[in-house]
Amino acid sequence: MTDTATTLDATFIPESEERIDPAWAGVGSLALGVFGLVTAEFLPVSILTPMADLGISTGTAGQAVTATAVVGAVAGLTIAIATRRFDRRLVLWGFTLALIASSLLAAFATNLAMLLAARVVLGIGLGGFWSMMAAIALRLVPMSLVPRAMSIVFTGVSVATVCAAPIGAYIGDLWGWRAAFLMAAAVGAVTLIVQMATIPRLPPQSAPSMKLLFDLMRMPSIRIGIITVLLFVSGHFAGFTYVRPFLENVPEFGIEAISLILLAYGTGGFFGNLAGGLIIERSITAAVSLGTLLIAAMAFALVTFGSFDVVSAVAVTLWGFAFGALPVAVQTWMVRAAPDHAESTGGLIVATFQVGIASGAVLGGLFVDSFGPLGAITYCAVATLASGLYVMASRRSIAF
Q: Does pTM surpass 0.85?
């Protein structure tokens, strides 16, 4: 890996590693930004059924997630290249403006075309943010404090995972699904104000290129990571995108119970993030394989015994716990595989995640429209099982 990495053009040059004053407020604003973006991305999951009042099927409504993912994949690969001459602070503000604009457009959508347009705008902001987030964090604090900074940023993901789905479901039931998107726009507005007040000037210092991306993908550890992520993300989001219809139709929970279960899922994800961090210190591949295999086990439990209330509630909670460990694990995987190329590996992991989300939402929509919610959950079980087994079989080819 070292020989390959040294042949690549450098894409990130740290500012001074002797920086005296870490910009912790700026790091906090990154966490707030990722909270807003993740909240907006998965709002349709918690309000999928009410969104069908646009005159579309549940499976079609789920493609609001697909649209964001597809655009996010392209943006993740290209935004850093397209904006390489711009101050990174201005680019970051642009991502937050995309969050606000997309949420407002979705809130006032009157047809599927407007809804999908809103999700396209969100995809640009989401993909761009995720691809550049690690590189920006590296410029806000000294190298020795980067792990702490990344932990703070990923707290935004954990909080969004805990809060977004249950609050979105509750607000959607209380005031309608459009109010949930207005809430996301308000979060974006607050985020923009904080970012404008806390992010210092960040003149461009890197020269990302498409050639570098292809060079990185030739590395065995990167290739294995990409395939692993595609499998488990596709399976996870095929099931999770349609978890509300499953809970409504199989164990037949009401909205209050569904909100509590989604809250339990998010809480499980928060603790899974913490547990995953401890496992990552010992073995990244163990963290990924254990997480994916636990999701597979919970999906199989839902397919087999999902009509029992307790089984469904516990399985969804443990599902959240298992998935909570995976984003940090794969981000760490990619950084360790090519530590000198944070911005480019960030683009690769974003594109891989978004392609996985898109394929999962498409396949999940087909399965749920053809076979009901059990079809999407079954695909989740098979894909995540394949991911876990693939990591275990490929361990000897992974070099960190």
A: no
CA distances from 354 to 41, 42, 90, 99, 147 (A): 11, 13, 24, 17, 24
Q: For 202-232, what is each residue's pLDDT tens digit?
A: 887 666 666 767 777 788 888 898 999 999 9
Ramachandran sector of residue 176 (left: φ over 0; alpha: ψ -120 to 50; beta: rest): left
- Distance between CA atoms of 275 and 272, rounded to whole angstroms? 5
**Cα–Cα distance for residue pair 317/397, rounded to 1 Å:** 33
Query: Do residues 327 and 270 make contact, with C-beta atoms less than 8 angstroms apart?
Result: no
Name the amino acid, one letter, at 89. Answer: R
Those residues whose C-beta lies under 8 Å from the C-beta of residue 104, and which sit 6 or more positions away, are 118, 181, 182, 185
Dist CA 365 CA 395 (whole Å): 33
- pLDDT tens per residue, range 48-62: 666 666 666 666 666
3-state secondary structure at position 16: coil
Burial class (CB in 10 A: 0-12, 13-18, 19+), 398: buried
Contact 286, 279 (CB under 8 A): yes
b/e 140-174 (16+ beta carbons within 10 angstroms → b): bbbeeebeebbbbbbbbbbbbbbbbbbbbbbbbbe
125: tokens are: 């902001």
Burial (0-12, 13-18, 19+ Cβ within 10 Å), 365? buried
- Count of C-beta atoms within a 10 Å radius of residue 217: 11
- What is each CA distance from 30 to 116, 127, 191, 270, 276, in whole angstroms? 26, 14, 9, 18, 21
Residue of 66, 97, 91, 61 whose CA lies nearest to 185? 97
How far apart (Å, rounded) are the C-alpha atoms in residues 330 and 282? 14
Nearest to 301 by CA among 236, 378, 373, 364: 378
Residue 337 contacts residue 400 (beta carbons within 8 Å): yes
Distance from first CA to last CA of the chain, Å, rounded? 8
H-helix or E-strand spanning residue 68: helix 63-82
Pinpoint the alpha helices (H) of 199-325.
210-217, 220-240, 243-249, 255-282, 284-305, 309-324
How many other CB atoms sit within 10 Å of the CB of residue 366?
A: 15
